[in-house]
Amino acid sequence: MKLSGYLLIFGAACRAAAQLVNPNNNTFGNVFNFWTRNGDAWDLTRRNATNAITLPLAHPAGHVTIQPASSALVIIDMQNFFLHPDLGGDPLGRALVPTAIDMIHAFRANGMKVFWTNWGLTESDLLSMPPAFFRGFSSDGTSATSFGSDMGTIQGNISVGRKLMRGSWNAQPFGDLFDEQVEGVANGTDFYFNKNRLSGMWGTSTPMQTFLEENMITTLFFGGVNIDQCVWGTLLDSYYKGYDVILVDDISATTSPAAATGMVDFNAALNGWRANSTDILPTLM
Ligand SMILES: *[C@@H]1O[C@H](CO)[C@@H](O)[C@H](O)[C@H]1NC(C)=O
Ligand SMILES: *[C@@H]1O[C@H](CO)[C@@H](O)[C@H](O)[C@H]1NC(C)=O
Ligand SMILES: *[C@@H]1O[C@H](CO)[C@@H](O)[C@H](O)[C@H]1NC(C)=O
Ligand SMILES: *[C@@H]1O[C@H](CO)[C@@H](O)[C@H](O)[C@H]1NC(C)=O
Ligand SMILES: *[C@@H]1O[C@H](CO)[C@@H](O)[C@H](O)[C@H]1NC(C)=O
């Protein structure tokens, strides 16, 4: 963490001293990481009210007040590999792209960061990849077609690259999302994080987690594919590690049976909140 981070925590601890009294029993957490309840509404700003935004989430979720400087939209695995029609990608996932772009624009316009958290393997990731993962990503049941295998060419001249390897075409964001990502990263509103498991927040730390800590980001909105696999894995690890998690239904999809989404919907509402972009965009625009 940067020195400024420690100073902020010190300041927060001083300011939070009164917090410990908690006379109305409406503060949840500790002096460093807490929410405050006000009737049906939840304040996630951790006492930084500057530019705070209140999102009118539908009952029973209740209104949620967020601090834009501590909030991010996390777009997971909207990559050619999972979405491109020529690679057998998910049409449900492709259908989310326009809404995802609306959300990306709205988050940027309100000073909230956009994260692209995607598969992006290195050679050393391949050396330590467990067997279950190689099996799960095989195309023909043999290990020859799993992570790192050459996926050939499509449309005569697009070299698909090695499966989910960092920098390959198949690991790039799909369609218009690619231009959004490149421009957003160049402009400094967006940030790109490679991951080497379904979750972008697993283990001791990941590039995404390091960034969250260094930038004191606490509140994460999630969308992408698959809702029950990489989105869920990243959301759940984030929840385990103390971040606020908000699943955005209408920018998330899956190829799995409906019961898989049902499980995620049920548990995401317990771990944090669920919302649709329609609950969020009117406030941000
Ligand atoms: C807060 O909780 C404590 C412990 O249960 C209780 O004694 C106190 O009366 C509560 N305060 C309010 C304002 O409800
Ligand atoms: C409080 O929020 C403002 C505006 O969003 C931000 O610029 C500032 O850095 C935040 N302050 C702290 C202490 O996090
Ligand atoms: C690839 O092929 C398409 C037609 O299939 C053509 O329109 C496009 O210009 C080609 N691109 C390159 C880089 O050769
Ligand atoms: C990047 O910044 C330029 C100049 O401010 C702006 O026109 C463009 O819309 C921005 N692009 C994105 C993706 O934010
Ligand atoms: C989002 O919209 C869909 C379709 O209308 C609906 O089934 C779902 O319950 C909504 N989610 C939330 C959190 O309101």
UniProtKB/TrEMBL annotation:
**Gene Ontology molecular function:** hydrolase activity
- UniProt KW keywords: Hydrolase, Signal
Q: Isochorismatase-like domain: from which residue to which, for each copy? A: 71-259
Entries under Pfam families matching the protein: Isochorismatase
What domain of life is recorded for the organism? Eukaryota
The stretch of residues making up the signal peptide is 1-18
- What InterPro entries is this protein classified in? Isochorismatase-like_dom (IPR000868), Isochorismatase-like_hydrls (IPR050272), Isochorismatase-like_sf (IPR036380)
Question: Which protein family is it in?
Answer: Belongs to the isochorismatase family.
The protein here is known as Isochorismatase hydrolase
